[in-house]
Please model this.
Amino acid sequence: MNETLQQNYKGVFDGRLGFGKKPAVLVVDFIRAYTTSGSALFAPPVCDAVMETAELLDAARARGVLVIYTRVLYNKNGLDGGIFVQKVPVLRTLVEGEPLAEIVPELAPHPGDVILVKQYASAFFGTSLASLLTAQGVDTLILTGCSTSGCVRATAVDGMQHGFRVIVPRECVGDRRPEPHEANLFDIHSKYGDVVSKQEVLDYLARYA
Model:
């Protein structure tokens, strides 16, 4: 890309949404399957994102901010996974009672948190997430989880399309490899939300009342 095109691209795709009036934190699919060595879905960078997210969740709860988790679960016959589990058959192992399908212990949900079950990439698809956020008056979705190129990106796109300000703290999302991780952070920030540092989110939460 030549210098002129780079400048034009930057002018078109460097907009900033900013934080709104009421946030919620969404923790997408931080389950043991992605953090357990030997698992077919193991993604070491996700382990780092999990540890970074712990501080953010503590800060959110201290300010009374709603924390929502998603996890993926399928019926043992896989029918509720449709084409998705045909494309990625390993997902069919994520059934009730499977330890790898559990939320990571480092980010164990608290009694006041909400846990949603999903079968597809976006946390909005086939769930009550949009209705929940709207009913609570939320306008800002702080998005954490994995994977950046899959469920995080899909949720960011749908979040924007449902009218929410999507904020992605870059340290709190992870993927299997750095290339899709960085490419999708670039794309999310260009079109669907704001990719910011975790510290910027912590500063916002510290001011929130």
Notes: The chain has a mean pLDDT of 94.
